[in-house]
Amino acid sequence: MSDELTGVLVLNGVNLGRLGRRQPEVYGSTTHAQLAERLVVVGESLGLDVEVRQTDFEGEMVQWLHEAADAGVLVVLNPAAWTHYSIALADAVVQVPRVVEVHISNVHAREEFRRHSVVSPHAEAVLAGFGLAGYELALRHLAATS
Ligand code: DQA
User: Fold this and answer.
1) In which band, very low, low, confident or very high, does the pLDDT at 67 lie, cut at 50, 70 and 90?
2) Across the chain, what does the average pLDDT equal?
3) Could you confirm whether 27 is annotated as catalytic?
4) Largest Cα–Cα distance of the chain, in whole Å?
5) pTM of the model
6) Where are the domains of the chain?
7) Is domain 6-144 in CATH 3.10.560.10, yes or no?
8) Tell me: the pLDDT tens digits for 22-50?
9) Which of 3, 48, 51, 74 is deepest in the core (most CB within 10 A)?
10) Distances (CA, A) of 116 to 67, 84, 125
């Protein structure tokens, strides 16, 4: 068995840098920095080398997905509002072999427009409504199957 850690990029989209301050009744009181710290620790315990990034710029997210596609890195992606309309993001996700889509809130129990994801058809799994634990569940899934 190899000691090498499997690389995972956790990519958070637009407005998720505001975690802890943004609608805490929906997204909780944990900040993005705290989430990132926690996911790195959880990753280590699972044999995963986790890097967490967040951007409010769609093109930057697309470039990170290209990077993941070229490096063969596993991806946990919360596309945030881009989920619902960004064909550019969907076209980038198609190129990445393994993407788990995560939503903190239960997008199906909210406004109608949140029920549709242009990303989900290209994701191997989708988690919604588990709060921040959804990211950990995604990591556990990737660790168990990589
Ligand atoms: C979200 C749900 C999206 O509808 C919303 O635009 C977000 C966050 C979630 O994690 O629940 O920004 O992806």
Assistant:
1) very high
2) 96
3) yes
4) 47
5) 0.96
6) 6-144
7) no
8) 999 999 999 999 999 999 999 999 999 99
9) 74
10) 26, 6, 15
